[in-house]
Amino acid sequence: MVSVAAGYIKGRPVSLAVLDYGLFQVHANGRIIGIVGFLIRTGKGETILVDTGFPAKYAQDPVRASAEDGLGSFGQVLTLTEQNLPEAQLALLGLTPSDIDLLILTHSHIDHVGGIANFPQTPILLSQAEHDLSAPLYFGKTKTMAWPDRTYIPLMGDCDLGPGLRILSVPGHVAGQLALWVDLPATGPVLLVSDAISRPAEITERFGTADDPQAAIASAERLLALAAGTGALVIYGHCPAQWPDLNKAPELYL
After folding, report:
1. What structural domains does the chain harbor?
2. pLDDT tens digits, residue range 146-188?
3. Are 182 and 223 in contact (CB under 8 A)?
4. Contact present, 132 and 152 (Cβ < 8 Å)
5. What is the pLDDT of residue 6?
6. For residue 235, which of 13, 21, 36, 15 has the smallest C-alpha distance?
7. What pLDDT, in 10s, does the model give residues 48-73?
8. 75-79 vs 13-26, strand pairing mode
9. What are phi and psi of 195, to 5 degrees?
10. If you count Cβ atoms within 10 Å of the first and of the last residue's Cβ in the chain, which end, N or C, has fewer?
11. What gap in Å lies between CA 116 and CA 24, rounded to an integer?
12. Beta strand pairing status for 47-50 and 102-104?
């Protein structure tokens, strides 16, 4: 069956911006991780937003927000201001929420799903497994978010969203985890693996914290083989070593 998402985007990618949604520290190991989103533009003027970071309440009062969600059991927000919300990150690129043609949700954990309600005119592409959930995964047993009333494009398996833009189904971290393949004119292929591989050390750790470690291992092997075979730049989901060196908006990968 061909997904309705196939061919949804008409132009080839011409730029990729890394969006800085803030910094978070994991209590268990002290690891400090960047919260990342992406903005892809195509040669036909299309704009695609990938993930939306934490809910806005974390920029307003992170202590209270963490208490509401029970996030303190896992870690703490270190840096997250209004400037780290999607609207401000888009403004660095001369864009507003109304300019976004498609929102891609790699999965619905709290640090990816927080702002999806802020794009009322924008269809949301996500995996069928996520779409089947009664509410976003959010955090642990906390389910304080509802799916907003939007047009959803659920995806089963891989899909060629447009020329040089492929969505990959990579279950393991969660059942509905997605990754993106973006072929840029100068940079060449870029593989946005999201939390399918949050950092390279997860591979040697055998994805012990994934919902399905065996599926996560298989997905990681598939992604790394794709990267090795094509020379793709891999941008990990939350890699402390990589995060400082990434070009961030308004800088672009072209």
Report:
1. 13-243 (3.60.15.10)
2. 999 999 999 999 999 999 999 999 999 999 999 999 999 999 9
3. no
4. no
5. 87
6. 36
7. 999 999 999 999 999 999 999 999 98
8. antiparallel
9. -85, 5
10. N
11. 20
12. parallel
